[in-house]
Amino acid sequence: MDQSRTPSAVHPLLACAATVTEAVTEARMRPVELAGTEVKARALVDLTTAIGQLEALRLEVIAASGDVAHDAGARSVASWLAPTTRMEHRAAHRLECLATAIAGTGATWPRVGAALAAGELTREQAETIVRTLDDLADAAYTEAGNDGVAVEAEVLARAEQHLVAEGAHFAPTALRRLGEHVLEVVCPETYDQTQRRLLEGAEARAAAATRLTLHRRGDGTADLRARIPEIYATRLETHLHAFTAPRTRPAEGGTVPRRRRGDKALGEAFCAFLERLDPTVLPDHGGSATRVTVTIGLDTLLSGIGHATLADGTPVSAGHARRLACTAGILPAVLGGDSQVLDLGRTRRLFSSAQHHALALAHPTCRTRGCTVPAAWCEAHHETPWARGGRTDLTDGRLLCFHHHQRAHDPAYRTTRHPDGSLRFHRRL
Fold first, then answer.
1. Most confident of 279-283, 329-333, 401-405
2. Is the pTM of this model over 0.90?
3. Last residue of a domain, one of 328, 347, 366
4. Which residues span the domain enclosing 390?
5. Would you say residue 86 lies in a domain?
6. 128 and 170 part of one domain
7. What digits encode the pLDDT tens for the residues 88-103?
8. 56-60 CB contacts, 8 Å cutoff, 24+ apart
């Protein structure tokens, strides 16, 4: 008779879970804050190791629980586990995939599972190693006529052993980078050919997975979701970092400005990046250079009261439209009475590259007091608004960072001009 189904018998798996629960409850009865520094430091390390070992045990159970899913009529263990434990299905599926790879009698990478069970790896490290080894294993299958060299099982075993050993010294991100060159260590004679095939395969998968969706939320914002090849993500990140404005020095008055969240800073940088795109280098659209057109009435432009409209019908405030009029690539269509076009973007409204450089030489940072954003990241602003006859010359130009350029055209802020040409903004009460 199977003792695991006997009510009076307690299976070691259930006893383990009960013991862990009891131990955790007992440990929390005493406030953690009262523990000494040495105790907390050791506990952090020991608990991390213990969690890894518990993860290994759970993965072993998942790998052996096909009968649980079968009895419940579920498609997979993950399909049963997710609703039962209130886990996201994606997370449960990821656990089942990892369990299949490193746990049970049919494990593909048993050394990884053994290291996790011994507390030598964390689950994140194990997942990283498995992904790397799976990519290498994919290269072992060559099509007829392919001049690549298959990755032998012995080489894969050496790669697994090497990455498991490196797990004692490196975090998951560093392990991933090491994994990209593991063949150079364990099998240098075939590294070049195999690495080429791996890169070509990764590039092909990335190209096939490339997606971008744009959803307008109806509240003045839009959700942009994209999956692009990593090489382009790196280029975009580099461009956006050029538009972020780190403020490391205290502003005037000795106060340190509040730092923006990383995603907030990148979001603002992306907006600035789009505004600074040179329309002359973009493909023609409808027989002319690609531009964004802002339609606004003359009275609205002069008064700042009212709104303008983008080409697709999106409304924007008059202040925002006036700021856009300072930016290259934005074409303001100014309408008079009966919607007659009075002006369609005079080219002289835009400061030239030479003028921008001259302004930067005179003032190497944003002209707002206390702002240290470099001039190279700033936008040229008309001191006398272009809509009111401002001239595009050096005496009428000010370099402002993206943030303060928005404030200059925001009616909610008052601008104070100092004798030295610097500006300061105050929120209207």
1. 401-405
2. no
3. 347
4. 353-427
5. yes
6. yes
7. 999 999 999 999 999 9
8. 56/103, 56/113, 56/116, 56/117, 57/13, 57/16, 57/117, 58/95, 59/95, 59/98, 59/99, 59/102, 59/103, 59/113, 59/116, 60/99, 60/103, 60/104, 60/113, 60/117
